[in-house]
Specification:
With 103 residues, the protein is α+β, with helices and mostly antiparallel strands. The protein folds into two domains: 59 residues, no CATH class; 31 residues, no CATH class. Helices cover 42% and strands 19% of the residues. The protein has a two-stranded parallel ribbon with strand order 1-2. Strands 3-4 form a two-stranded antiparallel sheet. Strand 1, helix 2 and strand 2 form a beta-alpha-beta unit. The N and C termini lie far apart (44 Å).
Length: 103
């Protein structure tokens, strides 16, 4: 706690940033792979804090993890060729994503 933040590991910085973000009561959370970092205990705490305690909030999740997105999301948007395409069906979203992966 008394060490300068610049001495923290990447994981420690991620945990600190996550903790600080929970101190503010947001209506919408932008989540970018934070739940994939750290050990299992930290991942479980992230899931509890975000998806249980804040289940009533809007969330924008950025992830390449197919299983995680399918578990947590009911619709998707794919950015390809500078265009954001929205989908209500996850299978369609992933088909489109795979077809445009190189774009």
């Amino acid at each position: 706690m008394k060490e300068p933040i610049k001495t923290y590991s990447a994981g420690m910085r991620a945990r600190l940033g996550f903790g600080i973000s929970l101190a503010v009561d947001f209506d919408c959370f932008l989540i970018d792979e934070i739940v994939a970092v750290g050990d299992k205990r930290f991942q479980e705490k992230c899931a509890e804090e975000l998806f249980v305690k804040r289940a009533d909030r809007a969330m924008i999740i950025v992830s390449h993890n197919d299983a995680f997105v399918r578990q947590r999301c009911d619709r998707a948007a794919v950015l390809a060729n500078n265009t954001l395409t929205e989908f209500e069906d996850m299978d369609e979203a992933y088909s489109f994503y795979r077809a445009n992966e190189r774009a």
